[in-house]
Amino acid sequence: MSLFATRGLTVQFGGLTAVDHVDAGVEEGETLGLIGPNGSGKTTFFNAVTGLVPATGEVVFRGAPLPGLEPHVICQRGIARTFQASRLCLGLSVFDNVLIGMHAHVRCGLLEALFRRARMLSEVRQALKQAAHLLSLFNADLVDRGFDPVGALPQIDRRRVEICRALAAQPRLLLLDEPSAGMSPEETVELMKDLQIVREEMPGLSIIIIEHDMFVIEGVSRRVVAFNYGRKIAEGTFAEVARNEEVREAYLGRGSGTEGSARA
Amino acid sequence: MTLIGVWAVELGLFVLVVAALLAERPIAVGLTVAAIGILLLAARTSPRLWGWVATAFRTHRAAALAGAAVLALALPFFLRASPYWTFVATMALVYVTIGQGMNMQLGTAGVINLAGAAFAGLGGYTVGLLTVRLGFAPLLAFAIGPLVAMVVGALLFIPILKVRGHYLALVTIAFGFIFNILMNNLEFTGGPQGIKNIPTLRLFGYAFTSAPTLFGMRLPSHANFYFAALAMAGLVTWLAWRLYNSWVGLTLNTLRDDEIAAKCSGVSVARYKLLAFSIGNFFIGLGGAFYAVMVGFVSPPDFDFGYSLVMVSVIILGGLDSIPGIVLGACLLIPLPERFRMLHEYRLLLYGAVIVLMLLFRPRGLWPATVRRYGLKGPAGSFGVAGGGSR
């Protein structure tokens, strides 16, 4: 049985069906690529899975159904995500932005914050150490800038911090929503290396990644699902999906050049 | 050496503040105002001077706090000739307490509350009703007041949890007016006359209305309340600092900046907003309850919308989400219109102008919030290694 699977997942906004009866799933430790033209429902699929928009159909994660749960509960169950448009708190420090990812695992609450300071501080130290470890996987300099506001960082480092925040939740399934958005080609290469580091460091982690950059998709995912108009139109290896007629028509455009290597 | 410097700076400021408060003749007022102006200008134009002061205070933080505490305790002795200024100083401390509560909501969690005066009123009226109508001991009533403000706030908040931003502002404004109208019209709250003769606080048989003699100096009875307010404001500020430098502060900041990111990081947004709103109302209600036992009288105009605006101006002037900034904001904004009595009629105008000017030119306040360090020392890099972060 797979770690995560949807059956007939559907999201409707008024008359518009943004996600239309999608069956998809990932195995433990697998990376699934999710492609499709703009407006094909990829991000809405993520929003439905993480409980941000109401959906019908089945979502099973670690053997339990998800629909109807609130976003924070879904996170606690082990699904973490990043966002296409960065959702970091730019005024807060790098460390703070990663630490919030550990929220579900934090044991100290109001009482410890006020009256059991030593206990809380030892937990904070532990968390800072873990945050520093995650940050140093990607860029050791980020640790030294731990108490700088995130707003002072370049785009690629912000994206790294956001991925660290998601990883800090110790998820079983990581949803990456177009991590290369707004990056230069050089930064995209860097980002791919980062994703490979995640892959190596966390072999058991399942990942679903939305990408427009075919170079990234080809590099990190073995299996690819293609969306168009909210429906799943193809599934298979990157090469298989890239060869698929319907995908080429919908996504690359009819007769638009060479298979797969085209950058969208 | 720098330690002496820190205390010298504090003492100098203290002397100027006392002089500014007590100066009677126009020439004395002019001189002190000019001295303060020159100092501010010097600090602003000379980065070296400012840098030296900032570094000195950072390295000797404990000593600076101790010095400030000693001076704050000494203030009533210098103001002993003027019960009025002792009272104003006490009100500033009450506003420190209220400001920390308001800041927990608006500054830390981004939950707009424009009914601060109503929640202070709930604390004050609770004290009045319990003591005068039901014969409770003042101290007990004083302890219950803030709880009532907190509980009523929570009951109000649950149905409007889903309401955000401007709508929340509107709901709280409406609540403030409803509170005022009710107090004006209900029979048992005394209507427009309010509740008179609230008995004063007693601690171990010592009535707060008796004039104390300390170190051979006879102080006005208001000094009792000054010392009590100092303890209250100090305690509340200390608690607020601890909350800010904790997981709670981090969680509230995150949901203020990006609610969706907070949700997807596992934060129950509703629960934490309610928490911030409740803690904030507790502190605001505490300030209101203190006001009731101090003045011995509560009436609807004491808690009208204008005072909600004062509370918001205090935190915007001091610095949103800045714990020391709130103290500064309250200590500046409360005595200022009292000093310039001719402005008194235009008090609300002054507060409005403060909000507009600050938002335009210094939106983060006079003493902006700094990055959360959880009270830990050491460079960021030291937290990566085992046992990192000295102390």
What descriptors fit this protein?
heterodimer, A: 264 residues, alpha/beta, 6-stranded mixed sheet, 4-stranded antiparallel sheet, 11 helices, 10 strands, 40% helix, 23% strand, globular, disordered C terminus, B: 391 residues, mainly alpha, two-stranded antiparallel sheet, 4 strands, 2% strand
Could you characterize the architecture of this molecule?
The complex is a heterodimer of chains A (264) and B (391). With 264 residues, chain A is of the alpha/beta class. In chain A, a hairpin with a 2-residue loop joins β4 (56-61) and β5 (64-65). In chain A, the strands form two sheets. Chain A has a six-stranded mixed sheet, with helices on both faces. In chain A, strands 2-1-4-5 form a four-stranded antiparallel sheet, with helices on one face. Chain A is 40% helix and 23% strand. The relative contact order of chain A is 0.17. In chain A, α5 crosses α7 (155-168). Chain B is mainly alpha-helical and 391 residues long. Helix content of chain B is 69%, strand content 2%. Chain B has 16 helices and four strands. In chain B, the strands form two sheets. Chain B has a two-stranded antiparallel ribbon. The chains are: A alpha/beta (264), B mainly alpha (391). Chains A and B meet through α2, α3, α4 and α5 of A and α9, α10 and α11 of B.
List the helices and strands and how they pair.
The complex is a heterodimer of chains A (264) and B (391).
Chain A: E1 4-13, E2 16-26, E3 31-35, H1 42-49, E4 56-61, E5 64-65, H2 71-77, E6 79-81, H3 94-99, H4 110-115, H5 117-138, H6 141-144, H7 155-168, E7 173-177, H8 185-201, E8 206-210, H9 214-220, E9 223-228, E10 231-237, H10 238-243, H11 245-252
Parallel strand pairs in A: 3-8, 3-9, 6-7, 7-8
Antiparallel strand pairs in A: 1-2, 1-4, 4-5, 9-10
Helix pairs in contact in A: 5-7
Chain B: H1 2-22, H2 26-45, H3 47-59, H4 61-78, H5 83-108, H6 116-133, H7 138-157, H8 165-185, E1 202-203, E2 206-207, E3 213-214, E4 217-218, H9 222-244, H10 247-257, H11 259-264, H12 269-295, H13 305-318, H14 323-333, H15 335-339, H16 347-361
Antiparallel strand pairs in B: 1-2, 3-4
Helix pairs in contact in B: 1-2, 1-4, 5-9, 5-12, 5-13, 5-14, 6-7, 6-8, 6-12, 7-12, 10-12, 13-14, 13-16
